[in-house]
Task: structure prediction
Amino acid sequence: MDPEVIDLFPSTVLKFKHEDQEIFDELEECVKAIEKNENVTLHMGVNIPNDQSWLHFFGNYQLPKLNQFISDGIDKYVGNDGWELWSSWLNLYPRGANQDKHLHAGYDLSACYYHHTSPEQGVINFHSPLREAQLDCYGTYQQMAVPTESGTLIIFPSWLEHSTTPNESDFFKISIGMNIKVNKSGERPFLGQCYGNHTLIHKYNGI
Result:
């Protein structure tokens, strides 16, 4: 028999994908210009620059088509356009690079747009916020892997811990990270906790 699964206390993650070559070309030209004209430094581990200008990628570079795609996705998650992009940055992952488990404190939503990525360049893992999940009980996941495909945007609550597996290819894995604050008061209450105020009821998938 096939039961229904009721996802109590879900951590809603939305994934959007486009097939628009103009968006791809727009960002590809930007990345090539950065590599050619700027001093690109690889920051590994906690070696993060004090200069905060790197946190304003979309403010420093004009990418109208990509900007619109990302804005439409955030609008869908939040339920309206009452949000603000507080920071954005370009990620270049060389071979062997990955992100350890972390969260983005002080924000409401975080997101990552994937430009160049392939299966051998790793996945993003989301770690269960349930303390009891660490007991390794049946029916409880400690983490869930989400494939990272080129042309995809993944949006998730900023408190949700996540990590990435290492890039095992000889090519850069390229993505853009983002942090978002949402207006939760006034005429635009926050509607995105459960994506449309409903918990998804779906068929059991046998996993």
Notes: The two ends are 15 Å apart (CA to CA).
